[in-house]
Amino acid sequence: MATPDPAYIQQTLTRLVQINSVNPAFDPAAPGEGPVAQWIAAELERLGCRVTRREPSRGRVSVAGTLAGSGEGPSLMLYGHIDTVGVEGMEDPWSGKVEEGRLYGRGAYDMKCGVAACLAALETLRRTGTRLRGDLVVCGVADEETESLGMTDLLQVVHTDAAVVTEPTELAVYVAHKGFCWLEVETFGRAAHGSRFQDGVDANLRMGRVLAELEGLERKVRTGPPHPVLGPPSLHAAVLRGGTGLSTYAASCVLQIERRTVPGESPAVVLAEVEAILRKLRDEDPSFEAKARLLLARPSLEGSADSAIARAVIAAATQRLGRAPEVSGAAYWMDAALIAEAGIETVVIGPTGTGAHAAVEWVDLESVNAVAAILADAATEYCGVAG
Ligand SMILES: [Zn+2]
After folding, report:
1. Which residues surround ligand 1, an ion (CB under 5 A)?
2. What is the per-residue pLDDT across 219-256, written as a single tens digit (0 to 9) for each?
3. For residues 132 and 376, is the Cβ–Cβ distance under 8 A?
4. Considering only CA atoms, which of 38, 10, 285, 271 is closest in space to residue 123?
5. pLDDT in tens, 205-216
6. Are the C-beta atoms of 164 and 348 separated by less than 8 Å?
7. DSSP states of 165-232 as a string?
8. How far is the CA of 283 from the centre of ligand 1 (A)?
9. Ligand 1 center from residue 236 Cα (angstroms)
10. pLDDT score for 362
11. N or C: which end of the chain has fewer CB within 10 A?
């Protein structure tokens, strides 16, 4: 059993945290993924990989390094995203300082720790002269925190038989995660001076009817039969905008809804639920006017603990942790579903820490070492060793 080098992991993670890669969606002046991708590309090359660089939008860079196998085994992707959220309220976001086994800074936990673990797994195979049968592809991916521009693009050119996503899971193995849909409802009124009740139709009050019905729908989806791993779906009325001034009847009111979905719920079904509410309100009052549309839909992930990659990861985790890992799912969304949607069997395992999107973020270095070891073992098991 080849063991990753803790010093390599700490140095690599420190370097990754010290390179600002804030997603420009959080700060227009942010550098994006270019500089960190360049550093990772150089490291992948040093470790013997053929590097593919993608830039689907200016400054938004993903890299994939392929360690060629002998060609006789299945191929495996090790995934990490390299963008981070903003640094508002953080004291020293790019320090990478280490205290009591914790490495601090923006991205330390979400999820440069996973990227460091992927690189360390590669470095371990390389250092021990382990030649795999299948290709091993390490991906540093742009723009996971907003629109998944990076993975959507990278999947056009990278395809493997399986993937391990190293988003932080506190060393649990996730085989599923929820998806989401963003919807917009607009109610229509008629603008008029606030004194002219005879002429005005109040779009905001009409949205009130929608909101009351939505509360019923929210209760219904949340108390329905839950998904065995992910629990119930949910929705919330996230953003509400209506009216132009105090002395004017609102001509329009717009509501944006987020609906978190479980496997089996399609965007069409989710939209139809809301359209059914609008139809009911129109039946009750023919003057009620509204429309609904889908803004964005992201699929959920439904994998299996029985897939070849899940079995390899669970066996490796059991060995390295000295106990069977928890096998579960995530309520939040990640790129894993996009990878699975491309026909690649996908599981998730990552380090322990806290502070994703918060003012103090750290990762437990011991857990990063463990993930690196699990990845190296799982790759060896899944891809096979060339004779
Ligand atoms: Zn993440």
Report:
1. 110-111, 167
2. 999 999 999 999 999 999 999 999 999 999 999 999 99
3. no
4. 10
5. 999 999 999 999
6. yes
7. E----TTPEEEEE-EEEEEEEEEE-B--BTT-TTT-B-HHHHHHHHHHHHHHHHHHHHHSPPBTTTB-
8. 44
9. 22
10. 98
11. C
